[in-house]
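Lab notebook page, bench 4
Experiment: in silico fold of construct C2
Operator: M.H.
Input chain length: 212 residues
Purpose: comparison with the prior construct
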Amino acid sequence: MTPSAPSLPAQERPGPDREYSSRFWTVPNVLTLFRIALVPVFAVLMIERRPKAAFLVFLVAGTTDVLDGFAARTWHQRTKIGLFLDPAADKLMMTTAFILLAFPTLAVPNVLPLWLVLVSIGRDIAIVLAACVMYRIRGIKTFPPSLLGKASTVCQVLMIWLVLLANALDMAAPNLFWVYVLAVVLAVVSGVDYGIKGWRRTFPKPAAGSGS
């Protein structure tokens, strides 16, 4: 009988990383860098109480997010740095929007409630810390998004978009409260889902019959 080839550890097996190049200056990455550059512009416009301009900047940033993903897939320009740069740019813009829209003096007439901001940002911090623990313990470098995580992100982006639009139109929108509730529910549920999946990847159960 021919001996079977030894199995490689998970981090040494050929995987999705082979599809990503080490290039930096690609169209998707340039669009992502442009989106990062828009964050301080957005912040300044919010501080200067220019809601219409702030809304437009947020809209442009969202457009670049769609375009860089489209370019990466269409032109096969997925890069290793882009795997981290793209979500970092998204979180930087969203966190900035969450914080600034929580100030009654900056967000008029619609202000994000503090409990929504704390839950949303707290979830992201918890996920980052969990990812660091997973890397430290198991060397896990990839953290694929879940369906619940994507739903939470889409809900948050649409919520921020609606709040900025309503403020740009100087229109009070009390019905946004239910959007806030939905955003919090999705944030909590997706956070728990990430936590369960992260625990299972970090501390997998031994396979049946693998005991000493």
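Observations: Residues 155 and 183 are 6 Å apart (CA to CA). The chain has a mean pLDDT of 86.
Next step: discuss at group meeting.
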